[in-house]
Amino acid sequence: MSVELDVFVGNTTIMDKEVYQLWLNGYTVNDAVKVRIEGGIMEECEASAEVLLSDTMDQYRTFQMCERLLHHPAKLANQLLFQIPPDRQAMLIERYYAFDDAFVREVLGKKLSKGTKKDLDDVSAKTGIMLKSCRRQFDNFKRVFKVVEELKGPLVENIRQHFLLPDQLARDYAAIVFFANNRFETGKKKLQYLTFHDFAFCAGQLINHWTVGAVDNMMDDMDVDLDKEFLQDLKDLKILITDKDLLDQHKSLVCTALRGKTNVFNEMEANFKNLSRSLVNIAAKLINAKDVRDFFIDLVEKFIEPCRSDKWTSIDVNLYLIHYTNSVHILDTFKHHGVWNRYMGVIKSCILRMYHE
Question: Count of alpha carbons within 13 Å of 64, Cβ hemisphere only?
Fold first, then answer.
């Protein structure tokens, strides 16, 4: 009995994007086969269940062998074991380092340690993301953090160069590294309405304006640590609330500029001193690590919630913060304009991003 075989020989490694995604999501081979069958692959390719199982197993083995290279993406282009075209390499890297918003929201700001990793079972149960995928994502965060935390130069650029990630993904990882390093509190109930992208936006503002790298782009840890000298200088802003004449002048200037421009003017006028004290006190306390960690909860509790309770719209908040910031420059005896602008620029951007009506 003769058997005919069709044989195809090639040197390009075959990788199915859908199977790769199933592997990344933590599916077992058998579960991946079920998903592929349910997706109609057998009718599309006229393949048997045995061939589909064999194909899935073969691709899983390839992905597992590639995984050690994906830990150091630059090695993927230089290895000789797999012939993978550049565009396919880019896809493998980007998808491997992609993460679920629900997952990162659970671990954002936590220490990337063994203790946190032990809690991934709970995170998996809460988010519905398979444990294997949770571990991959967590290990990626930790790997990127370890590589870039001591490097000189811009954080986003370092991540992009060392891990060959596209720009937006590199920026997201920069936010994750920044939050892990400074241990910002993100898990409190009052912060649950904020998404990862809200926090990532704020991280970008802090990195670009409040780190050492914002003023000197070749300092150690330039984009990871907040600028201690700047945080110390923020104490000088307390004069805006401790000097009664300055406080009254500031209020008068802001209220004059706002009168007739908003439906909540009376509330703005009545609460001006409380809101100003809140914003200035947040600034003055940032020299302490614990108060840095509480930065977002302080913004919500001490500014956003009072404005919400008075029915301010985001347009009202924006208008108030513009005049609140700019009016300080008219105060004759105030001398700390550079520190004020650097502080309030970030505060305004973060509050507006975090203010959900």
Answer: 9
Count of Cβ atoms closer than 10 Å to residue 150 Cβ: 9
Tokens 């390009």 found at: 12
80 φ, ψ (degrees, to nearest 5): -110, -5
Residue among 294, 344, 284 at smallest CA distance from 320 = 344
Question: What residue ranges of the chain have pLDDT lower than 50?
Answer: 7-10
Task: Give the pLDDT confidence of 242-292 residue by residue, as tens digits.
Answer: 999 999 999 999 999 999 999 999 999 999 999 999 999 999 999 999 999
Which pair of tokens denotes residue 53?
A: 């199982």
Tokens representing 91 are 């896809």
Give the Cα separation of 266 and 255 in Å (integer): 9
Angular region, 242: left φ>0, alpha ψ -120 to 50, beta rest:
alpha
Determine how many CB atoms are found less than 10 A away from the CB of residue 61.
11
